[in-house]
Amino acid sequence: MRLGIYGGTFDPVHYGHLLLAEQCREQLRLDEVWFMPAAVPPHKQDVSVSSGHDRLTMLKLATAGHPALHVSDRELRRGGTSYTVETLTELRAEDPDRELYLLIGGDSLVELPTWREPGQILELAIVAAVNRGRAVPDLAAVHNSLGADAAGRIVLVSMPAIDLSATDLRQRAADGRSLRYMTPRAVEEYIRQRGLYLREERVTAADGDWPS
Question: Which of these, 40, 45, 120, 194, has the minimum number of CB atoms within 10 Å of its CB?
């Protein structure tokens, strides 16, 4: 089984996230892609995020109907800082025959050497870096930082440019502006009904290493 792992804050999930997952699924011939919302966001200190319940529910609404896209609450149940290497280690122990692919944005690839145990991450999973319509990252610099073992463990995936960010969606929701065609309708309605991003029902985050 070829399994894609896509971690992040997903606060909220939007079409950019979904397109990235679908392009990786298709181009890498993945059997499944698991969205994995982090208990705490990556490389962010003193940042507040919506509850795990809300983020998990929005992901389930967004992926409903796609048989290859799934949502895992593994890191929310584990709690604390969400370190990628710990999650991949758990997944490998559960099924050693499963081939793991770690899906990240190309802009996060240059930060990979700063993550916890990057060498171990590359042993556990192939890193799929998606350019998200932007310039291709400098792989030579990444290889130099990670060492010779990085060669062959990083693949590049391209996707159409789509200029969406969760930060912008949160601000639009706070301002009462439309989210139509930026996130699935079910997610848009959930945000409206719950009044998300209009009130201070958010939790302080610690430092982790999932890309947002």
Answer: 45
